[in-house]
Amino acid sequence: MKTYLPLRVNPARKALLCTSLIGLQFLPHAPVLAEASNTVFEDVIVVTGIREGSISNQIHPDNEALVAPDAASLVARLPGAGLINNGSLSGQVQYRGAFGSRVSTKINNQSFHSGGPNLMDPPMHYAPPTLIDSITVHRGTSSVDFGPSLVGGLNTNLKDLDFTTGSTFKPQYDLTAIGRSADDSYAVGGIVGITNDQFKISALFSQEEGSDQRFADGDIDNTFHERAVFGLSAGYQTDLSELSISVRRHETDPTGNPPFAMDIQLVESDFFTTNYRRQLGDATLKLALGYSDIYHEMNNNQYRPAPPSNTRYRETHAAAETRSASLALEFPLHSANLEVGVDFNNADMNVVITNPLNSGFFVNNLPDINIKRAGIYADLASEVLSWNYSLGARVDSHESSAGNASKGPAVPLGAQLLAIAFNQSDRDWDGETFDVVARMWKKYGAFTYRFSLASKNRTPGYLERYAWLPTAASAGLADGNNYVGDLALKPETANSLEVGFDFESDRGWIKPTVYYQQIDDYIQGTPVSSQPREIISLIEIVSTGNGDSTPLRFTNVDAEIYGIDADYGYYLSSHWRLQGVVSVVRGERRDINDDLYRITPDKFSMSLVFEQSTWSASAETIFIADQDRVSDTNSEIATDGYELFNLFATWRFNPKITFSAGVENVFDKEYENHLGGYNRVRNSDVGLGERLPGVGRNIHVRFHYNNR
Ligand SMILES: [Cu+2]
């Protein structure tokens, strides 16, 4: 049995593990039809805490190279994935060419709206590495019970205690400490509590801080970060039911965002979740409630060289409050397993831009937005002629509205006129979307064949629909363009086909997938100047005042994304093996001859791994290709390919203590990170407008101490 996997890229084990994790989390009830589970379509990254002796194919947890403070970088190592790097704590996961809200991202199964209109706090912002237990990534299409998600979908489970056997309360802890040289950063955190066979109660905490990251030519200014999390959780179980409640407070202090016009001043957020599960005869009832309240401030003058003129000082205040609920019933139906459910999501958001030097300057560029959704779904899983299949459908009813834009007297006339026009427009929208997902898989010897066919939707975000003032806020596109929304936008629809297989034998494994996604009404910025509307000249005038004379408007266009990705491994001997990942993604417009923006360059990685029972070591080479398939519409600049070399080792001293260490970018190679955006901070060692470089040589250590 292989106990150490320094680079966790073996989905067969992940699939097994995931099944086991689900079993563990929802004890005491095993899934009704374990074989028919969809886990063959999931990748699971285990970051901490697999319980000793609890599963047969055990994977030790502490072997992921946590080289960055942003946990999104962990997901970026998977086949088909990449990291949209907008700052040390502002990374978005790109999956098969999609990012932002196209890839639904949850924490502890809670779906919530970010606070910042530029996604300075994307969902993974709320998952500090010291607190992560595991991350589940849906390969390709997520099943309908996951909720709406155009491409893929991921959920991060934070650490939690396990119920024990016997009524005596026992202390339980799971603590992690991380240090990194490239930004002199540290992170400490974990969970501590007491538990018995019925009750558990715990406290969660995390503290992280780091300065600017170094690269071969100096410092990458405004890549510093600081974040703290506190929380409490409690659980109760009986033979037939389980109830859990958790509450968390996240506080992000000044954290830089070099590809944006502003930096995070603060993000203060409260999260509340409660989950209930009950066995009713053969059926399982699941209820989940969630609430999040996020308040965020950012500015362009405190943490980077201030603008030359007082009139250009900006401080933006943004808030998002999300309420969510879901109820599902899972039960056997003849030889099949049926899950039916309803889910709701209701969010209020507001964004005000101010000038901290002029109280007469304030403008409500996203005023009192409300976005509501109610969904109903059914998912049938069964086995016919030794093929497993799952068929799911969901219908969602959507509603959105915006309030009146307020504006101070110091706001220029052009913007005042745009606000008046916005306030006179019809800002209510409602619509329905219909998603279907069909999957088939079959185990045949060493092979598992996988097919999936889906049609999924994404409704426009509040910025895409309601941004009436041309600003650089763009949900993190960071392409230097100003954007305005379109009240008439339609939802995006992705029709996708995916074919792959998992092969696993004593000699190794390979899991390739080929996919094609046709995305109709893909939302993309197109030049305002080419659009026949009378107000356009005004938008251009105001946008010119805001630094971009050629603004873009979010528009429905047609696109396609296709590619192939795989992970593989080959056992050279009982202690040595080779393993790695291949990703090739293409994203293109179908209506004009252009490529999609910020698509992951082709990637190939190979690690040589040496493994013993208590320690392992690996040497990894990553080849990143040139990316010259760039978006003309987004004025995207091509980047050159490069090669990186990393080292990593893990020692397990005893069942409680694991220590890992590694060197990222051993040769301190200087390279442009294609997904990193362009530098907007003056007087940095990175030129203004230059593509942000990847981090230089980075020595990282991690210490994990737990008795779970
Ligand atoms: Cu922000």
What would you note in describing this structure?
This protein has 708 residues and is mostly beta strands. The chain has a single domain, classed as Maltoporin, Chain A (Beta Barrel), CATH 2.40.170. Helices cover 6% and strands 50% of the residues. The protein is built from 5 helices and 31 strands. The chain has a 22-stranded antiparallel barrel. Strands 1-5-6-4 form a 4-stranded mixed β-sheet. Strands 2-3 form a two-stranded antiparallel sheet. The N terminus is likely disordered. The structure holds copper (II) ion.
Summarize the structure.
The chain contains 5 helices and 31 strands. By secondary structure, it is mainly beta.
Beta content comes to over 45%
Radius of gyration: 25 Å
Which stretches are low in confidence, meaning pLDDT under 50 for 5 or more residues running?
A: 1-36, 48-62
Oligomer classification? single chain
The CATH architecture name reads Beta Barrel
- The figure for the number of domains is 1
- Total number of strands: 31
Going by CATH, what is the homologous superfamily? TonB-dependent receptor, beta-barrel domain
User: Describe the biggest sheet?
Assistant: 22 strands, antiparallel, barrel
Total number of helical segments?
5
- The rough form would be described as globular
Query: Per CATH, what is the topology?
Result: Maltoporin, Chain A
- Average pLDDT over all residues: 89
Cα separation of the termini: 21 Å
Structural class: mainly beta
Which CATH top level class fits? Answer: Mainly Beta
Q: Which small compounds were modeled alongside the protein?
A: copper (II) ion
